[in-house]
Amino acid sequence: MVRGVGVGFVLQPEERYLELLEPVFGELADYFEIAPETTWWGEADGSLTSNGFAERFAELGERWAPASATIKPFVAHGVGLSLGGSRPEDRPRQLRWQRRIAEDHRRFRFAWLSDHLAVTDIGGEAHALPLPLVPTPTVAALVRRRLAELQSIVPAVAVENAAHTFTFGDPLEETELIAGVLELPGSHLLLDLYNLVMMAENMGFAAADYLARLDLSRVIEIHIAGGSWSPDGWLPSRRSYLLDSHSSAVPESVWTLLERVLPRCTGLRGVTLERMEGTVDAGDVRAIEAELRRLRAVVEGSR
Ligand SMILES: [Fe+2]
User: Fold this and answer.
1) Are strands 74-77 and 48-50 parallel, antiparallel or unpaired?
2) CA of 45 to the centre of ligand 1 (A)
3) How far is the C-alpha of 276 from the C-alpha of 113, rounded, in Å?
4) Domain hosting residue 237, numbered range
5) pLDDT on residue 130
6) Residue 94, by phi and psi: left (phi above 0), alpha (psi -120 to 50) or beta?
7) Which residue among 55, 68, 208, 273 has the highest number of C-beta atoms inside a 10 angstrom radius?
8) Average pLDDT, stretch 192-213?
9) The domain spanning residue 149 has which CATH number?
10) CA of 20 to the centre of ligand 1 (A)
């Protein structure tokens, strides 16, 4: 941990990923990030059944604990809470998930809890990807209410700027939605620089313009990752899209943005390297190790 800003790595619910990367993240990460909902199955009757990965993640945390603690610090970063969902039919699921996250928190003592500024459950159907919200004060107030509920579980909560492939109106207006959400005291922004680069590339705006509209003092965590270009012919227009695949090396554009924003992120507590399960082979391990070492050097250089 460098003057309060840690370097983090994502633990994925895949045994091969964990086995290949354990020597790297065990030594080089100050904290682990997990998605709570990847440690349980949702049954047809709505109940949640453990899949064994909470125990596996805890075992890794204990094995690689710093000398001063019994477990490595953990942070929670969900995908499917559906912070922007407004349908009453989804309330029972949200409340079940909150109870389960509270149980997980007793085990992991999450330093903070985040999810995407998006909707992932529409009419009782869970979507694989977060969908964008309409950037209005009403929606900001809805997300604030959801975050306030989560604060009763983990006091430090955050929303992440998601990797949208479309937005309702000017994509820069998302910064107004973020500002409205952050009116909630004790809430923060998880700034995902790859998501921003991806949207800027696909939608034709400057990432710097988006960043200039944010209060970066409210950023608690930064995500960096790498993605891929869509295959030829993926779209009828034959246009290529940058995809949110978390499948490859962090691009130089993301490293450059990271170095630019770090001095402005005065409340920052961690920078996390994200990688998706199913994208790591033995030949990728050294490259991921080099990325974590580079990340630590960048964070140290910014202090
Ligand atoms: Fe992210």
Assistant:
1) unpaired
2) 30
3) 19
4) 6-302
5) 87
6) alpha
7) 273
8) 97
9) 3.20.20.150
10) 22
